[in-house]
């Protein structure tokens, strides 16, 4: 496993990419409401990236057709934007996107409730998934292990009776979208790769209300929960420092 250690100058470049990803996600979030299509969100994100001088990280990656992944309700990740997918009151939609600036990648995701009438269990799913990401980021520092990070997610999620998706994991990131190491959202404390100063990780819990199993649809991209239960996804790009985590997105 060749883990790329970034210099402070490289991390500064990644901070710029990360800030642009955040701006794009905030812009898209402001447009999420009943009646909007996922293609509307895609168009807005593409325009915002152009405006901010960023290249989309996802479009063309392994043949993926869009700048956003938009995954609704039981879709876990990699949902493809479409003019036929209309957001409805009470839905949740996870928006995942990335950009490249000056050769360095940023990657982030958030799950957004559509409208005001959100079921309590759905609201809880979003809160718990976000809390699991925050807890994982809290474990990041030089000398900790990937097992510490994964265990933090797993503990928060399973304490609430939800489950962690295992087929998809976080990843290293830098001059490529996906670098070593893989960053699972489950694990045992003290186990796995030790974190070193200058590593940059995309940490991204994917959490299901029901069982952890997922399957990929015929489009070859969209992953859904096997049992049809709701799923949420939150992600930040994070640099490892001596003091702890530096969130770049």
From TrEMBL:
Residue ranges the record marks as coiled coil: none
GO terms for MF: initiator methionyl aminopeptidase activity; metal ion binding; metalloaminopeptidase activity
Peptidase M24 domain span: 12-242
Catalytically driven reaction(s): Release of N-terminal amino acids, preferentially methionine, from peptides and arylamides
Annotated a divalent metal cation 1 binding sites: 96, 107, 235
Cofactor: Co(2+); Zn(2+); Mn(2+); Fe(2+)
Sites where the protein binds substrate: 78, 178
Cofactor: record remark: Binds 2 divalent metal cations per subunit. Has a high-affinity and a low affinity metal-binding site. The true nature of the physiological cofactor is under debate. The enzyme is active with cobalt, zinc, manganese or divalent iron ions. Most likely, methionine aminopeptidases function as mononuclear Fe(2+)-metalloproteases under physiological conditions, and the catalytically relevant metal-binding site has been assigned to the histidine-containing high-affinity site.
Residue positions binding a divalent metal cation 2: 107, 171, 204, 235
Superkingdom, taxonomy of origin: Bacteria
Keywords of the record: Aminopeptidase, Hydrolase, Metal-binding, Protease
GO CC annotations on file: cytosol
Record EC number: 3.4.11.18
Listed Pfam families: Peptidase_M24
Record InterPro entries: Creatinase/aminopeptidase-like, Pept_M24, Pept_M24_MAP, Pept_M24A_MAP1
GO BP terms: proteolysis
Subunit-level organization: Monomer.
UniProt function note: Removes the N-terminal methionine from nascent proteins. The N-terminal methionine is often cleaved when the second residue in the primary sequence is small and uncharged (Met-Ala-, Cys, Gly, Pro, Ser, Thr, or Val). Requires deformylation of the N(alpha)-formylated initiator methionine before it can be hydrolyzed.
Family: Belongs to the peptidase M24A family. Methionine aminopeptidase type 1 subfamily.
Name of the protein described by the UniProt record: Methionine aminopeptidase
């Amino acid at each position: 496993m060749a883990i790329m250690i970034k210099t402070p100058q490289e991390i500064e470049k990644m901070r710029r990419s990360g800030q642009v990803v955040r701006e794009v996600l905030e812009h898209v979030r402001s447009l999420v409401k009943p009646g909007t299509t996922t293609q509307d969100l895609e168009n807005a994100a593409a325009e915002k990236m152009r405006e901010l001088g960023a290249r989309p990280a996802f479009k063309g990656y392994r043949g993926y057709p869009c700048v956003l992944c938009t995954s609704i309700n039981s879709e876990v990740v990699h949902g493809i934007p479409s003019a036929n997918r209309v957001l409805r009151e009470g839905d949740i939609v996870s928006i995942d996107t990335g950009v490249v600036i000056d050769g360095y990648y940023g990657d982030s995701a958030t799950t957004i409730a559509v409208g005001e009438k959100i079921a309590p269990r759905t609201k809880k799913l979003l809160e718990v998934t976000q809390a699991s990401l925050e807890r994982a980021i809290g474990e990041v520092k030089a000398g900790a292990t990937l097992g510490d990070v994964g265990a933090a997610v797993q503990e928060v999620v399973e304490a609430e009776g939800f489950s962690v998706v295992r087929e998809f994991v976080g990843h290293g990131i830098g001059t490529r979208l996906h670098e070593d190491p893989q960053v699972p959202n489950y694990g045992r404390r003290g186990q796995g790769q030790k974190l070193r100063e200058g590593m940059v990780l995309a940490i991204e819990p994917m959490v299901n209300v029901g069982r952890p199993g997922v399957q990929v649809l015929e489009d070859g991209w969209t992953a859904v929960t096997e049992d049809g239960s709701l799923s949420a996804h939150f992600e930040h790009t994070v640099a490892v420092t001596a003091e702890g985590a530096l969130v770049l997105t």
